């Protein structure tokens, strides 16, 4: 990583360390790379939606990746909350029979597990799948229709990407659905939990592209929700300058947009922010039509202030790499298991059964 710094004239003794808000991790350092999740059929088309959440309630984050051919893939986290590793689970994909190019998580029925809704440009309305995990102890979804589908009364057309979020901090999930036009639907539930379209859309006038992808998160830590928007080839940032109960969004550009340096192929940027490695900061993942890995992974940088002695012209900045190194070691552990039997050489071994083979001059 290149670190730029500026030394101020006069008596100032500090330097401004110019580190990008996000930096991309590739190859084995990307938990969504093909070496981890496996190959997805070329017949799937282009990635159209990405949702991340603890789908199986095991304490780590899983993902659903939807494609333009209406296929949805279950990327199960077989790693941990601190060292994620996503694998394509085709055997136990709970949504293998579903048909949608846009998916979203949310505990719609408030029973402690994540339900899923899906949309498609080829049909109108919202399809609702209720998670049976809390009732049965096993991850699985049942499609609900008619009056059992709280979204059944919605008349929404040309829909592309749904998002379930409590936008006004009232304890009830609201629904945003972007469209093939430069707009979105905003839907709220009544006291009985049935959703209808609300014409007072807090995102009115803020869309700039068709088929946008929305992700709501408290990025600046001020206890209200901001928005990252995938708009064609770029990721825009809308800061909430209102409050948690009364949001008001303003687009930030240039240095005010933490994702300003991220670009993807045409109409494919669908961002999602989550703390994937348990370090307390939000990382960014985004679908990419032009990438053979389909999902790109950007770690959030940890900014630091450097102090320069008077008269000095340089400063050494330490960039934390411990988590990256441990992650790469864990992901390569299968290689050790193919080696000859070994013994632990120290009680300070990195993890359970981390061993070195008994061979002469072994170099790993």
TrEMBL record:
Keyword Signal: yes
Keywords of this entry: Signal
Pfam families hit by this protein: FG-GAP_3
Cross-referenced Gene3D superfamilies: 1.10.10.1510
Signal peptide from the UniProt entry: none
Protein name: VCBS repeat-containing protein
């Amino acid at each position: 990583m290149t670190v730029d710094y500026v030394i101020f004239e006069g008596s100032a003794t500090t330097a401004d360390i110019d580190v990008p808000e996000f930096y991309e991790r590739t190859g084995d350092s990307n938990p969504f790379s093909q070496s981890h999740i496996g190959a997805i059929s070329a017949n799937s088309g282009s990635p159209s939606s990405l949702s991340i959440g603890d789908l199986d309630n095991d304490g780590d984050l899983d993902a659903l990746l939807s494609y333009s051919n209406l296929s949805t893939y279950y990327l199960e986290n077989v790693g941990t909350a601190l060292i994620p590793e996503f694998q394509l689970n085709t055997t136990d994909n709970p949504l293998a029979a579903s048909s949608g190019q846009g998916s979203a998580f949310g505990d719609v029925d408030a029973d402690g597990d994540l339900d899923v809704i899906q949309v498609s440009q080829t049909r109108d309305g919202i399809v609702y799948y209720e998670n049976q995990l809390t009732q049965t102890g096993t991850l699985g979804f049942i499609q609900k229709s008619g009056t059992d589908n709280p979204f059944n009364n919605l008349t929404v057309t040309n829909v592309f990407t749904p998002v379930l979020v409590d936008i006004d901090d009232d304890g009830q999930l609201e629904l945003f659905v972007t469209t093939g036009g430069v707009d979105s639907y905003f839907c709220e539930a009544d006291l009985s939990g049935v959703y209808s379209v609300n014409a007072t859309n807090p995102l009115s006038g803020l869309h700039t592209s068709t088929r946008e992808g929305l992700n709501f998160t408290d990025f600046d830590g001020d206890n209200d929700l901001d928005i990252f928007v995938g708009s064609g080839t770029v990721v825009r940032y809308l800061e909430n300058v209102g409050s948690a109960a009364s949001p008001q969004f303003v687009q930030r550009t240039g240095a005010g947009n933490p994702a300003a340096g991220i670009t993807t192929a045409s109409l494919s940027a669908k961002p999602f922010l989550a703390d994937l490695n348990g370090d307390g900061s939000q990382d960014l993942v985004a679908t990419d039509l032009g990438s053979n890995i389909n999902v790109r992974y950007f770690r959030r940088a940890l900014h630091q202030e450097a102090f320069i002695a008077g008269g000095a012209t340089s400063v050494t900045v330490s960039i934390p790499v411990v988590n990256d190194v441990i992650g790469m070691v864990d992901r390569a552990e299968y290689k050790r298991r193919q080696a000859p039997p070994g013994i632990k050489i120290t009680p300070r071994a990195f993890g359970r059964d981390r061993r070195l083979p008994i061979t002469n001059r072994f170099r790993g």
